[in-house]
Specification:
The complex is a heterodimer of chains A (311) and B (335).
Chain A: H1 2-6, H2 9-31, H3 36-53, E1 95-98, H4 104-113, H5 119-123, H6 153-166, E2 173-178, H7 185-196, E3 202-208, E4 211-212, E5 215-216, H8 217-220, H9 226-232, E6 236-241, H10 245-253, E7 261-266, H11 291-303
Parallel strand pairs in A: 1-2, 2-3, 3-7, 6-7
Antiparallel strand pairs in A: 4-5
Helix pairs in contact in A: 2-3, 2-4, 2-11, 3-4, 3-10
Chain B: E1 3-5, H1 7-15, E2 22-26, H2 36-41, E3 46-48, H3 53-65, E4 69-75, H4 76-82, H5 84-92, E5 99-103, H6 120-125, E6 131-134, H7 138-148, E7 155-158, E8 163-165, E9 180-183, E10 188-192, H8 195-201, H9 204-209, E11 214-218, E12 221-223, H10 227-235, E13 240-248, H11 253-264, E14 270-275, H12 285-291, H13 296-307
Parallel strand pairs in B: 2-3, 2-4, 4-5, 5-7, 6-7, 10-11, 10-13, 13-14
Antiparallel strand pairs in B: 1-8, 6-12, 9-11
Helix pairs in contact in B: 1-7, 3-5, 10-11
The chains are: A alpha/beta (311), B alpha/beta (335).
Amino acid sequence: MKEATLTSWQDKTRQIAQGIRRRVLDFTIRNNGGYLSQACSSAELLATLYTRIMHIGESQAPRIPPPFPGVPSKTNPHYFSGAAYNGPHAPEYDRFFISPVHCALALYALLVELGRMDAQGLDMFNKDGGTVEMIGAEHSPGHELMAGSLGQALSQAAGIALARRLKGHSGRNWVFMSDGEFWIGQTWEAVETLVFYKLDSVGVYIDANGQSADGKIETVMEIGSLKDRLTAFGARVFEVDGHDVESLAAPAELPPDGRPLFVIARTNPCQGIPLLEERRPRLHYVRFKDEAEKQRYREFLMTLEGGTHGA
Amino acid sequence: MALESRVHARKLVEWAKDRPEVVVFSADLTSSTEVDLFRDTYPERFYSFGMTEQNMMSFAGGMAREGYTPFVHTFAVFLYRRALDQISMSIAYPNLPVRIFGFLPGITTPGGATHQAIDDLAIMRAIPNMTVVETGDATEVESVFDAIQPIRGPVYIRQLRGDIPRLFDPAEPLQIGKSRILSQGEDIALFSSGICTEEALKVTTALRDAGVSVYHAHVNTLKPFNSQEAIEIASQVKYGVITFENHIIIGGLGAAVAESLAEAGVGKRLVRIGLQDTYAHGGNKAYLMKYYGLDALSLVRRIEQLLGRNLEIEESDLQITVQQPVRSASKAEDL
């Protein structure tokens, strides 16, 4: 207890971020592949959202993720939402929406770090008949929307935000996005709509890691200055170091001013795991070339604080 | 029989060598749709679009109007769902020769509902001027290039990637509008397409041993659909017709067969095997095929229903059609 009171939120958040990396690296080694760079870039961003920025309640979901309940339909009363891991829906609580669900593994690791999901849940990743899906679906822990066809979550969140405003909710609506999604026309349609309807309860954190499936974003399709573009659209924009938890948290502490908030978090897809640098420019999915490479990652994992973790 | 890998990648490079009008488009899925080899071989004919599928489709229409032949590549699900209006108005209406390659058909991906093209055939068939083709093995993946070359309008190809079996003799290329007759029989007509044909072949021997005579046709052209052929085959069998597809039962192969038989007044019972009007979820291919009733044993059970008797065929009676690799270099997870 004494130690807990002495630990600052910044230290705690940094520890959780490092825990995300450690768990995803451990998983990637055991699975012989995984979305590792996404965890490296988004770790502080996700950890700061959950520990400092978002006002959410206790998880309402079982610690061990339940099996696949079938898809939503008139005849399926068993379907459930992965959003229950983010606490109850209530007027005063914030909501969280993950858009680049290829980062699901990092989100699952975070839920474990926070005690919202059991470590066993991570072992259920991409297992047949489970809900801890590789590309997160809305029944997957921590997920609320179907977002794997990228660029749709922001518009959905905007609709939710407008509905919540009509209902008088005070809770805010946080969307986690990737920079690659700013290639997509719908993303800009959503931005202009957020501005038009003055939806300042929407806050968007962008993991600007400069990476897409094909490699470096500017070699696939140039998007120029995200900050200038978003500002020109009328959004309230901040550009921060995406690995600095204080810089990440600061924009969310400002009172809303009528404009949707966009925080461009400049991140490094190899942050915390320097071995990944060798794999540039293709970092989208890490699969080890051979046993020797895997061994080097294994040795690196052992050097991380805490080493390997148990279930 | 062994699996072959990156068949599309190699064939495209070879086939497009002396066809300077062929340009390849990619929407941030270059290696996932096997056009990385083309990009590296003919960089001046490769165009990267990022995730701008709507823009990419209309852009393809523009280049096609100027005499180029865009070969547009992405996951099947993203092209018809994200850019349907653009396909219709920028490509199909002016009947432009754009080749649209859609990968990861149906439940062949662990990516879940957002990545599974389960209704692409229904939607693409409904587009005027569109030709719709689905490949079922390495021979078809290779020979589809020559087969569609004479078609003057747009073509949608539901293409396979990664490790795929070679079920058919390379000397017998895919022909538009012509099914492959895999067995002849009098009891049941079976029309299968795509990966379901390989699945059906696993039970061919067991069915014969059980005394069931199956007329089995592998269909690769969904539009224009060869109704005459379907009518002739269906008319010959005693018990009924089965369609077997990696797609919802609405609008695909089952629908094409049903439309043909009904219009001709062929009164046969019809069993449509496919996804029963449902979205799917993520998982490996074998699990999903079983879960959604698209595996060989599910086919047997449906044949039993049609015949009204138990054939006593079990898992151990299934024939192994291809040798599975111990560890594949293909990345099923790379989405």
